[in-house]
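Exam revision sheet. Question 4 asks you to relate a sequence to its structure. Input first:
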Amino acid sequence: MTTDGASRIWFDGALVPWQEAQVHVLTHGLHYGTGVLEGTRVFGTAGGPAVFRLEEHLRRLLRSAHMLRMPLPYGVEELAAGTVELLRANGQGACYVRHFAFLGDGSMGLDMRGVRTRTVIASWEWPEQRPSGGLRLKTSSWRRTDPNSVPPAAKATGPYLNSVLARREATDAGYDEALLLAADGSVSECSAENVFVVRDGVLRTPPVAAGALEGITQDTVLVLARDLGIEVRVERLLRSDLYAADEVFVCGTAAGIVPVASLDDRGLPAAPGGVTKRLAELYRAAVSGEEPRYAHWLTRV
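Answer key, structure tokens:
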């Protein structure tokens, strides 16, 4: 990650210099994880930079805040306008955008009532880094919590500690990414990506009930797959389903669509497989504006 080319951050409705976007050390969200976030990508197209599925990301941000009972002072239209304003001010082409809302300073303790919500939009360069030959996954000893403990439908900051620990465990052991299981032992997701399995031409991915985030890129893949005539199922998966799969890939806003080469040192058939290739090609056409069927997913900067 680099901040090259980004001179401004949108902070509580105004553009401020990057170095001046600061908060107090007694910020509630810093101590208690009371924040919600979104990661959104800007892609270069023939018509200039475009934000991919911006409205869907912002609607999820508002839903997440609602689940945490955090009042947001801005709606989707205001945040979308702020995003475009920021990107134009920074003059960036392809980049990553972070939408972030958190409880600020003024009151400490677990009682969050009366603490004001701060809202931030930032952008930076985040080039894709994909290992050649596909990802090497390791099943993590850390598990996703029960959905009734921390709601996986809310993209909140606090629960990301679970992902941080899982990713650190995997990378320390020499793997690229961690696969997390749900409390019942079924497959949930990776530390920052949704998981897809292909077997006998059928595409499958775990449900929210398994502790998996209802991903925007996951939804994109499901739409693309149906448009390609691929049968799709959102259903419970076991780790053995991945071991026995014809293809496995992960997807996320930052990652895109990335094939998996192995899980727990069990090699998978050549990555990427045929279904993964078809989906990745259509995904690239969608985000770049080359496929007009998905032009409604692009917000032009």
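Marking note for examiners. The helical segments are 28-32, 54-67, 76-90, 160-172, 216-227, 239-243, 274-287.
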